[in-house]
Structure formats: C-alpha cells, structure tokens
C-alpha cells in the first residue's frame, strides 16, 4: 500500500470526479434526481388571508357575550365561496358565510365555525353561539411559507415530498 500526501490525494480526486451539468426537466421526470440549485418560494402561502374552515367571517367584538343560551344575532351580508375574487366588507353587526379557503372579507377578524351557528338563510340573520377572539380560524397570508423562503436545498434527492413542494410552487 502506497501512502500519498494530502495534495496528491486531492489532485487524484479532482482528476477522477465528473461534475454534472445542470439540466432542466419537467416535473414528471424529476423523481430520484438530485436538485442542482436551491429552490425558493416565488410567492407566499397562503396567498391571502383565508378561512381555515366553513363558518362565518365576522368582527370578534360582535360576539361578546354570545353563548348557546344567549346567541348574538348578526345580519348575513353574503356568501364567500373558496376561489371568490370579489370584494365584500363586513361592518358592525354583520357577517359573511365563508367556505374553507375563502378570502377573509375586509372588516372581519375571525371565523366562527358553522356548527356554532344557526338560522342562516340567503338573506336572513345568523345566530352566533360562540364568543370568539380576533384571529380565530384564519390562515394568514404567508403564515405557512414566506415569499423568498428556502424550500429545498441544492443537492437534495427529489422524493414525493419534494415533488409536492415543487408542484405547489
């Protein structure tokens, strides 16, 4: 066995190492490959403040003292489905029915789950049986991932987890 110096070892390694070139592939061909550069979030997730559940977006102050025995009655201002891109504002004494993922209307600061309400019709009042706090059941813009955040490091082998992140962003 021959002993060589550190410099000789480095030269030997450098002379026998193949450096891979960067390739750009479709997502369908990435499984099992090695990521050639860092991947950063091009946008925040979620993209906007949205409802974490089906319920009613409202002003938390309007729910003070509400309970099963003493519900607060709020005027239904409208319905906000997931994917809604219109504008809806909530004022004192009002609420909007919202689906999971629906944007939070201006003026609202909380969501009360639908199971803590009753009496809602297309234009009728809504009974709120739960006192709530600001921020409840709201997913805030960028709460999960900030724009520019490192998502996957260079050199990572692409598995189903990384494929999901890449498909999302």
Describe the protein's architecture and organization.
The chain is built from 2 helices and 10 strands, in the order αββββββββββα. The chain has 169 residues and is of the alpha+beta class. It is rod-shaped, with a radius of gyration of 26 Å. The two termini are 52 Å apart. The chain has helices at 6-15, 160-168; strands spanning 39-40, 50-51, 55-58, 72-80, 94-98, 110-113, 117-118, 125-128, 138-139, 150-152. Strands 6-3-5-4-8-7 form a 6-stranded mixed sheet, with no helix packed on it. A two-stranded antiparallel ribbon has the order 1-10. The mean pLDDT is 92.
Core attributes:
169 residues, alpha+beta, 2 helices, 11% helix
Biggest sheet overview: 6 strands, mixed
Fraction of residues in β-strands: 15-25%
CA-atom Rg in angstroms: 26 Å
In whole angstroms, the N-to-C terminal distance is 52 Å
The rough form would be described as: rod-shaped
Low-pLDDT segments: none
Secondary structural class: alpha+beta
Name the helix and strand elements from N-terminus to C-terminus, one letter apiece: HEEEEEEEEEEH
Helix content: 10-25%
Strand order across the biggest sheet?
Answer: 6-3-5-4-8-7
Please provide the count of β strands. Answer: 10
- Helical stretch count? 2
Mean pLDDT: 92
């Amino acid at each position: 066995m021959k002993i060589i110096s550190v410099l000789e070892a480095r030269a030997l390694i450098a002379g026998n190492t193949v450096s891979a070139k960067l390739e750009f592939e479709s997502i369908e061909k990435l499984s099992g490959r090695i990521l050639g550069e860092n991947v950063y979030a091009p946008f925040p997730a979620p993209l906007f403040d949205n409802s974490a559940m089906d319920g009613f977006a409202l002003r938390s102050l309007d729910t003070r003292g509400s309970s099963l025995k003493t519900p607060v009655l709020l005027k239904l201002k409208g319905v906000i489905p997931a994917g809604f891109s219109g504008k809806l504002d909530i004022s004192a004494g009002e609420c909007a029915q919202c689906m999971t993922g629906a944007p939070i209307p201006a003026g609202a600061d909380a969501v009360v789950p639908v199971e803590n309400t009753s009496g809602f019709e297309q234009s009728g009042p809504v009974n709120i049986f739960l006192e709530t706090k600001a921020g409840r059941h709201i997913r805030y813009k960028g709460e999960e991932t900030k724009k520019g955040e490192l998502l996957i490091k260079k050199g990572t082998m692409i598995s189903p987890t990384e494929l999901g992140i890449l498909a999302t962003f």
